[in-house]
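Researcher: I'd like a candidate sequence for this fold, 159 residues long. If you have to choose between options at a position, lean toward the conservative one.
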């Protein structure tokens, strides 16, 4: 099943952190990353007095159930030194968000698919649409329609 994950970092070498996350995911045979978007620089979202983020989106293939895919991402974050303390949406070395998995709509404690705020975030939609220009957010519609409604001035494509 095809899925998408968001990657972000605003501590240390952001592009390096994203490369490290992709390498960690590549060591796991249960989730195969098939392509990665360009890198984007974005202003913080939610909690603003912090450094800008480096973001990307990756497409992947897996046979894992949504909860198992999320567990794999959380384990990769832990392996890479992510500490989940402090302010919500605060600075972090790496952030791996499960954005979608097939057309699944899941609402469980700790897991919502599609990601409940992806349609509000340019730093998710721009790189996602780079990989799949016709992407439809399950339950919400075409991602491009949502991106067209957002202020794109706080996100810059890097490479």
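Model: Candidate sequence:
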């Amino acid at each position: 099943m095809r899925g998408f994950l968001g990657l972000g970092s605003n501590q240390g070498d952001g592009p390096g952190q994203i490369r490290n996350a992709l390498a960690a995911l590549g060591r796991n045979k249960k989730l195969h990353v098939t392509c990665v978007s360009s890198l984007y620089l974005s202003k913080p979202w939610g909690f603003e007095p912090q450094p800008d983020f480096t973001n990307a989106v990756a497409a992947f293939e897996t046979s894992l159930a949504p909860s198992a895919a999320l567990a794999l991402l959380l384990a990769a974050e832990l392996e890479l030194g992510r500490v989940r303390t402090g302010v919500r949406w605060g600075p972090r070395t790496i952030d791996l968000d499960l954005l979608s998995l097939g057309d699944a709509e899941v609402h469980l404690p700790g897991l919502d698919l599609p990601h409940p705020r992806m349609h509000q975030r340019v730093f998710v939609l721009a790189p996602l649409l780079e990989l799949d220009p016709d992407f439809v957010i399950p339950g919400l519609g075409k991602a491009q329609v949502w991106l067209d409604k957002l202020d794109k001035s706080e996100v810059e494509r890097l490479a």
